[in-house]
Amino acid sequence: MTSPAVPRRPSRWLSRTAVNGTLLLSVLYTLFPLVWLVTAATKDTGGLLSGEAFSFKGFDLGHNLSQLASYNDGVYFRWYLNSLLYAGGGAAVCALVSVAAGYAFDKYAFRGKEKLFGVVLLGVLVPTTALALPMYLLASKVGLVNTYWSVLIPVLVNPFGVYLSRVFSASYIPDEALEAARIDGAGELRTFWSIGLRMVMPGFVTVFLFQFTAIWNNFFLPLVMLSDQKLFPLSLGLYAWNSNTHAEPGYYPLVVTGSLLAVIPLIVAFVCLQRHWRAGLAAGSVK
Q1: How far, in Å, CA of 194 to CA of 200, rounded?
Q2: Residues 45, 47, 51, CA angle at the centre, nearest 5°?
Q3: Full-prediction pTM beyond 0.70?
Q4: How do residues 208-240 score in pLDDT, each as one tens digit?
Q5: Spatial separation of the C-alpha atoms in residues 252 and 245, rounded to whole Å
Q6: % of the chain beyond a pLDDT of 70
Q7: Residue 273, pLDDT score
Q8: How far apart are CA 283 and CA 205, in angstroms?
Q9: Which of 157, 155, 137, 154 is nearest to 145 (CA)?
C-alpha cells in the first residue's frame, strides 16, 4: 500500500513569490526615473509643463539636442569634457594610488603599519562635505581656487579605496609569486607594476568604478571651488540651469535632455567593466 503524497508546503511558494515580488518592485523603482528621463527628453517646454512626460506625443528630441549643442556657444559639452576629465582622470589616478597603498599595507611590514591603517579607516568615517571648507582654505593659500586642480587633487585619494585594495591584495596576490620575482632580480617597483598590479586588476577596476561614479556625481566640492562657468562639471552646470527654470521655463528641456546625456558615461563604464567589477565584488565579499 502506497502512502499518500505529501502536499507541498505553501510556505516555500509564498517565500519565493515574496522575494520575486520584492525584486520586481526594486527594479521598477530603479528604472522609473530613467524611463521618465528618456520620455521627458523628447518634450518641449509645453509638453513638460503639461504633465505628459510619459508619452511620446510631440516628439522633439532632435530639437532639444540642437538647442543643447548651440546654447551659450555649446557650453554644455564643455561641461561634459570637464566631467570626463575630473571623473576619468581622477578615478584612474585614485585607483592606482589606492591599489599601491593597499598593496604596501598588505605585503610590507614596517613600524606603525596598523596604526597608520587605522588612521586610513578613520578617514572613511569622515564625510567628504565636512572636508570641503578646509580644502578650499588650503587651495586658496596655494592659489589653486577656480582651477582644474582644485577639483582634481582632492579626489586622487580615497580611504575606502585603500581599505578595499588591501583586501584585494590579500586575496589575489600570493606571496610566492612576489618572492619568485625578487629571486629573478626584479625590484620592488617592477614587482608591483608587472605582477602585483596585474593580479589585482579586478580590485583596480572596482575602485575605479566607485570613484568614477562618486566624482561624476560630485556637486558640493565644485560648488565651493569653482566660480568660472567654463570649469564647471555637468552636475554644477545643470544645477545652474535648473536654478533659472522658475524665471525662464525654457531651461526645462535643456536640463532634462542634458541629464539624459549625463547618464550615458556611467552606463558605458559599468557595462564595459562589469566582468572585472563582478569578480572584484565577489572576492571582496568572500574575504
Answers
A1: 11
A2: 115
A3: yes
A4: 999 999 999 999 999 999 999 999 999 999 999
A5: 6
A6: 89
A7: 81
A8: 13
A9: 137
Q: Assess contact for 89 and 74: CB atoms under 8 A.
A: no
Q: How far is CA 51 from CA 1, 191, 247, 280, in A?
A: 69, 60, 19, 43
| pLDDT tens column, 6-26 | 555 556 666 778 888 888 888
Distance, in Å, from the CA atom of 276 to the CA atom of 280, rounded to the nearest integer, reads 6
The answer to whether the beta carbons of residues 164 and 256 sit under 8 Å apart is no
**Residue whose C-alpha cell is 572596482:** 206
Element (H, E) at 236: helix 234-243
User: 3-state DSSP call for residue 216?
Assistant: helix
Instruction: For cell 582644485, name the residue.
Output: 150
Type of residue at 242: N
In degrees, rounded to 5, the angle at the alpha carbon of residue 264 between the alpha carbons of residues 259 and 269 is 140
Output the 3-class SS for 52-113: CCCCCCCCCHHHHHHHHHHHHHCHHHHHHHHHHHHHHHHHHHHHHHHHHHHHHHHHCCCCCH
Q: Which of 54, 62, 74, 37 is nearest to 255 (CA)?
A: 37
What the block records as the C-alpha cell of 164 is 578595499
**Spatial separation of the C-alpha atoms in residues 28 and 181, rounded to whole Å:** 51
Helix or strand holding residue 218 (H, E)? none
What is the length of the chain? 287
- Taking the C-alpha atoms of residue 275 and residue 171, their distance in angstroms, rounded to an integer, is 17
